[in-house]
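Field log, afternoon session.

UNIT: design team B
ACTIVITY: writing a sequence onto a fixed backbone
BACKBONE:
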């Protein structure tokens, strides 16, 4: 069973850059046909898919976030990264890592003025 653990700063100022980490155990992030997604949920709203990095390193992003978002990985450290630039108050959300039918517990990100 894959386990996912998100981590990040918690509080970020508007216009700054957010960097989140998803640490993976129980599976390889290069496992054939696996896909590792970032998904977020703003307060009072539904889940929003942000983007994905696949087993071969390909990345795909939500069109609405593509210009500000980057997903990368460190194979040796079994880690997936999310970077989002120019943060806005609307980016306040719980951010989740998802793969192989498993979810992390999520990490709260609050964007302050």
């Amino acid at each position: 069973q894959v386990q996912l653990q998100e981590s990040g700063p918690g509080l970020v100022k508007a216009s700054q850059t957010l960097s989140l980490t998803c640490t993976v155990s129980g599976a390889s992030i290069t496992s054939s046909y696996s896909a590792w997604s970032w998904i977020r949920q703003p307060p009072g709203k539904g889940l929003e898919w942000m983007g994905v990095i696949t087993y071969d390193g390909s990345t795909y992003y939500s069109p609405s976030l593509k210009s500000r978002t980057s997903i990368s990985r460190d194979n040796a450290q079994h880690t997936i990264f999310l970077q989002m630039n120019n943060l806005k108050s609307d980016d306040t959300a719980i951010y989740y890592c998802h793969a192989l039918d498993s979810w992390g517990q999520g990490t709260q990100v609050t964007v302050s003025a």
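LOG NOTE: The first strand starts at residue 3 and ends at 7.
NEXT ACTIVITY: expression trials, pending approval
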